[in-house]
Amino acid sequence: MKLYPVFLSGGVGSRLWPVSRQLYPKQFLPLVHHQTSMLQQTIARVGGLDVAAPLIVCNEEHRFLVAEQLRQLEIEGATILLEPEGRNTAPAVAAAAAWVQQQDPDGLMLVLPADHVIADDEEFCAAVTRGLALASENYLVTFGVVPVSPETGYGYIRRGDALGDVGFSIGEFVEKPDAVTAKSYVEDGSYYWNSGMFLLGAGAYLAELENHAEPIFQAATAALQSATSDLDFIRLDKTAFCASPDDSIDYAVMEHTLKGVVVPLDAGWSDVGAWSSLWEVQDGDSDGNVVRGDVETYQVGNSYLHSESRLLAAVGVDNLVVVETADAVLVSSRDHVQDVKKIVDRLKAQGRPEIESHTRVYRPWGSYESLVESDRFQVKRIIVNQAHSLSLQMHHHRAEHWIVVKGTALVECDGKEFMLSEDQSTYIPLGHKHRLTNPGAIPLEIIEVQTGSYLGEDDIVRFEDVYGRMAAAGSSEL
Length: 478
Known about the structure:
By secondary structure, the protein is of the alpha/beta class. The chain is globular, with a radius of gyration of 24 Å. The protein has eleven helices and 30 strands.
């Protein structure tokens, strides 16, 4: 039986704000390793197994981030399923299972959230290998993490009868306990942390889903049947998919099925659900501090200090989380970082842009960053990756000045093309069709000065676009 790795990449990681944001959430960030993102680490983790090409289920807004991170790993043949709206794990995995069944009626799925940390990849692969024997017999396998402390932020699974020397039947799922109850679970020895990782036959999962949560089954399978291809993506039908109830695999299937089993996993697992988790999974200095970026400390202990855009200095504090980005700073006791989501909820209610995107915004062709903003002018840094180009577009309310600071630019303006080298510039008048392309072998970096009566990102009329984005006014994708 062929094993298909399925990576769930639909979360927004609000408890890791201000670094994790809606348009660039934690799974795409190098939060643990400096060079690779959490999604890339998760994909690499299955390298020790005999698996098919990756299948990633992600939010429509993140499609180009996923594609770029796969490109960086030099992975070919991957499939990307686009969710029109997040509906939790049960329908996401159902759509993936329906796709796997189309390719291979006997296919097995290894379902992994894209934002977990596992210290021992070899032991993880060994646990998956043990679980394959059960999954091939149509059991629905979940991995129970052997607890190392009485955590109150995780759900638990109580094991039942032994199934040989591989795993156990599931006695019950338990919600997040209080501290006293969590301590009793660890001392008992028959409880595991609920990891949210699964090993399932695609057909077996769909059969149990249809039996226990038929509305989800109907919606997800219909969404795939009516899906459309969009470049390298498979776009699930919006009407069908959004008709699905919002439910997790645990609630929809695992708490009801008689085929559920748990395989123990002891491999240094964390779901990195809060800043305290990042402090726990990384090596600290002699004072117990984990430091990222330009940070100076004096008499500071047991703290997580993260700086992205400037010097961060801390004096005489203990047990803190301090996270600095270009447009926001978080200061919290390490014991209260679970409540960061409450701040995010407040900012969302106020319509604050800081929860949605960073000052640096990523696009399929590269990125742009706003440096200076005023009523009638704005200065941006634009980076265009090698062999990429922006759409052919025009603006009703602004003109643009482009200065090349690195690389070579191919500029199209009103049908005429010309090249610009470093230190050269051009002017794009209001209302003129234009496009910027990087024909060179290194990233193109330009400084753009916008002037006009309105400088919003929705002042774009798009005429041509190699990335399949709709050519329409009102688009926010540059």
